[in-house]
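User: I would dearly like some help making sense of a protein record. This is the protein in question:
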Amino acid sequence: MAQRVGFTRRTGRVALAAAAFAVTLASCTNASGHSVPAASVRTSPADTSGISESLINFYRQTVSWSDCGNGFQCGNINVPLDYSKPDGTTIRIAVVRKPATDSAHRIGSLLLNPGGPGGSGIDYARSSGVVSSAVAARFDLIGFDPRGVGQSTGVHCLNDSQMDTFLNVPPDPATDAERALEVSQSKFFAAQCEKNSASLLPFVGTVNAARDMDVLRGVLGDSKLYYLGKSYGTYLGAVYAQEFPQRVGRLVLDGAIDPSLTADQLNLAQATAFDAALRQFAQDCVTHSDCPLGTDVDAGLAKLKTWVAGLDQNPIPGDATRKLTEAMAMTGIAVAMYDQSWWPDLRTALTKAYAGDGSVLLSMADVYNNRVSGHYQSNETEANFAVNCVDHPGEATSAQQIAQELPAYEKAAPFFGDLVAWSTLPCAYWSASPDTTPQKITAKGAAPILVVGTTRDPATPYTWAQGLAAQLDSGHLLTMNGDGHTAYLRGSTCINNAVDAYLLNATVPASGTVCQQGQ
């Protein structure tokens, strides 16, 4: 789930926190104060062939890297706010780098994006288990916060208290009063984003983020882009390939989005996939003696839906200052759909919640929302809306339109459908107009691109990976038969080996390759 913009483009960060109910966030502060000489950025000038004269200086800039702990170096680059006016305002893109451990056999820089939109590539790069040790040996790992996100020039809208209110609006407003609240909160969110970030909002779309990636590629001294993108990061990577096909080196697009689909098609398919994932959880749950759903899948899901709906009027105790609302319960449940390693935690959370203790389920929602001790640790919610609202025309046009579409959502996804449908409403009041249209991406002339899909992925349905791989001229589909969001380094040696072979040797898997989760 992408914070009330459906679940569609959600980051893979959730899975990294499964064991601890916490996200390890690493700031890019200078830990030692020691600068890394600019010469260490590259050994040769940036490749500026084919770059317009007005942009060359952006590609030729150097990074003043500083040690920021745990083997990482931090820095910034400048890019145009508006690429049509390169001599105008510039914005900052924050970057971290961890040099290849086998410098003698270094291939290049591997840019990382965890999804979102709004996910921090800096935090993701600094998390453990992002790539295999073999890949880390041969590539400098590069995390960056896309424009509008995190430590880069960012979108800012609500304070912590306002965000609490916004995220706790009933996800399935059924009464006139609840719908009025949904509209007022959506309008307030959009107005606050306009108030605090007006100049940035028209320029945070994915096309501009892809252009920033090419500047970063040039600054790092790579003639081709090497990239690992997950979830929304697959869309960013595909747009890059469309914009710069001649610059494509090796792109892994894991948990893919089909760029040819409309906003409504994306949201409806994703709501359906989340409901399917919930049923998978229930089918597993009833085989365990501690399953709070009982022994019958359909009866258990009906019980869960009724119980969650009851929280609208009667929330239960959560932590010392908050109650577990319907919105937070659904968010906590959704978290467990991203990775089956969360399923035991969800059984525990629901068992406690049914007994009147919502603390565990609320803590799971806090992981999703990146809320720690009453403070939202990132601007991911704001950035998510900012990008989606300009990337997807028709995301929402009015509350009346959503109400008309609800029957289709409720039929396809009885549990999550209403939430996904209503989550798009702030875009109806957005000040910045959409700057793209749904279209097939062919990336004609690009080198082979590896698209990875998981058959029961709730956030990015498998059909999207099939669609993207088919429309790319050089797309190659790699399939994991399994559950959860994304595939690389998620329990399949077969997937891991295939992705590593591609990144390290440019070897694409045989057509039709299907790997089994757990093998």
User: Anything to note?
Assistant: DSSP finds 18 helices and 15 strands in the chain. The chain has two domains: 13-154+202-261+440-516, 156-199+262-369+396-433.
